[in-house]
Inverse folding.
C-alpha cells in the first residue's frame, strides 16, 4: 500500500495561486514519489521532468522565458524533480511565473543550500515552500494499527523511518539505511559546495552522532578535528541544509544562571544517526536509549507541528548547575516544556524554571503517552 504523504493535500491546496511550489528534503525521503502522485492526479495537463537527465538540463539551459515556455509546451502543471541541477534555476523560475502566471511549477530539491540560496532572492514573494521528512508516525497509521505502531517503536528508534526501509526485513533495512547514510546523504554537499576535507566532514557528523542529546562545543569539535572553529561551523550549517541535522538553541529570558549561547544537535532520522556510528543494537544492549528517545520525540513533534501548520520556537533549557528541560516550545506567548523518559519515571520540573516561568506547562513524555504528544 502506498502511504499518502501529509503535505500532499497542503500542496494541492496551493496549486494555481501564481506561486512556484518548492519541496525540499533529503535524498530518499520520497520527494519523487510525492510529486508523481500529484502528477498522476493531474496527468492530462501535467508534465514531469527529471532534472538529472541530460536532455532536460539542455532543454532548460535557455535564457529567455519564450524559449523555456516552448520547451514545456502547453502543459499547465510542470514538475521539476531535483531542480537544483539546473543552472540559474531561480532566475528561470522567476521568468516563467512572471510571464506565464497560468502555469503552475512544482520544483523539488534535495539540498536547500543549493536550491534555496539560488531561489530565495529571484523568487521573493513568488513561492511557497514545504519540507518533506521521513515518514511520520501519523502517516504510518495508514497501514499500521496503533497496537502495531507500538510494537514497531523500538525498530523505528534503531532503524528510522525512511520510506524504503519501513517495508524491509531487519537485515535488509539495516543495509538500506547504511547505504543512504554513506552513499546518498552527503552527495549534494560534495557536489555543490567546496569541501576541502571530506574526511573531516565525515568525522564531524560521527562525533555529532555520538554527542546526541548533549550540548555541543565548537571549541571541542575544532580541537578534536584539527580544524578551525569557522570550518566546524560551516560544515554544521551544510549538514543542516542537507537535512541531516538540526539545532536547538538554549532558552533564556531572566535567570543569570541560565545557559544562553549553547546548542544541542539532533538528527532528522534516528536510523541515519545509528548508521553513522554503525550501531543497530537492540535497546536493551545500548547506553544511548535516552538520547535516541529524546531525538525521536523531538523530530516527530516537528512533523506533527507541520501537519497542524504550527511553527513554534523550539529550545532546550539548562542552568550552570545542570538543572535541565529537554525541549521547550514557545508560541503565542505561551511556553510548553517537555521531558522525555523512555521508561516511566517520575521527574520533577526544576523549581528555578517554575519560579521564573509561572505560566509554563510541563509534561513528561514516555512510552505510555507519546502518541498523544505526537497526534
Amino acid at each position: 500500500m502506498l502511504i499518502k504523504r501529509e503535505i500532499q493535500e497542503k500542496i494541492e491546496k496551493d496549486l494555481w495561486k501564481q506561486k512556484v511550489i518548492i519541496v525540499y528534503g533529503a535524498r530518499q525521503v520520497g520527494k519523487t514519489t510525492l510529486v508523481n502522485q500529484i502528477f498522476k492526479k493531474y496527468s492530462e495537463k501535467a508534465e514531469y521532468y527529471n532534472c538529472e537527465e541530460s536532455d532536460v538540463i539542455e532543454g532548460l539551459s535557455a535564457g529567455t522565458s519564450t524559449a523555456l515556455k516552448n520547451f514545456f509546451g502547453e502543459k499547465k502543471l510542470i514538475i521539476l524533480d531535483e531542480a537544483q541541477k539546473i543552472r540559474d534555476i531561480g532566475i528561470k523560475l522567476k521568468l516563467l511565473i512572471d510571464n506565464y502566471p497560468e502555469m503552475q511549477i512544482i520544483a523539488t530539491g534535495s539540498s536547500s543550500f543549493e536550491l534555496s540560496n539560488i531561489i530565495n532572492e529571484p523568487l521573493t514573494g513568488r513561492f511557497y515552500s514545504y519540507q518533506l521528512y521521513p515518514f511520520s508516525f501519523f502517516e504510518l497509521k495508514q497501514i499500521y494499527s496503533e497496537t502495531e505502531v507500538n510494537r514497531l517503536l523500538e525498530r523505528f528508534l534503531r532503524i528510522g523511518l525512511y520510506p524504503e526501509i519501513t517495508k524491509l526485513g531487519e537485515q535488509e533495512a539495516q543495509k538500506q539505511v547504511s547505504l543512504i547514510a554513506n552513499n546518498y546523504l552527503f552527495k549534494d554537499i560534495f557536489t555543490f559546495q567546496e569541501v576541502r576535507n571530506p574526511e573531516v566532514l565525515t568525522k564531524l557528523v560521527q562525533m555529532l552522532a555520538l554527542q546526541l542529546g548533549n550540548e555541543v562545543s565548537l571549541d571541542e569539535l575544532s580541537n578534536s578535528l584539527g580544524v578551525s572553529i569557522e570550518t566546524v561551523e560551516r560544515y554544521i550549517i551544510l549538514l543542516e541544509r542537507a537535512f541531516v541535522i538540526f539545532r536547538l538553541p538554549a532558552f533564556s529570558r531572566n535567570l543569570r544562571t541560565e545557559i544562553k549561547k549553547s546548542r544541542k544537535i539532533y538528527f532528522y532520522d534516528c536510523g541515519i544517526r545509528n548508521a553513522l556510528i554503525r550501531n543497530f543494537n537492540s535497546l536493551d544492549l545500548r547506553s544511548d536509549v535516552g538520547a535516541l528517545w529524546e531525538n525521536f520525540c523531538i523530530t516527530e513533534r516537528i512533523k506533527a507541528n507541520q501537519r497542524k501548520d504550527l511553527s513554534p520556537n523550539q529550545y532546550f533549557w539548562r542552568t550552570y548547575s545542570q538543572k535541565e528541560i529537554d525541549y521547550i516550545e514557545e508560541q503565542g506567548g505561551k511556553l510548553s516544556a517537555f521531558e522525555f523518559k523512555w521508561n516511566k519515571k517520575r521527574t520533577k520540573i526544576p523549581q528555578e524554571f517554575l519560579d521564573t516561568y509561572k505560566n509554563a506547562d510541563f509534561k513528561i513524555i514516555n512510552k505510555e503517552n507519546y502518541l498523544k504528544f505526537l497526534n
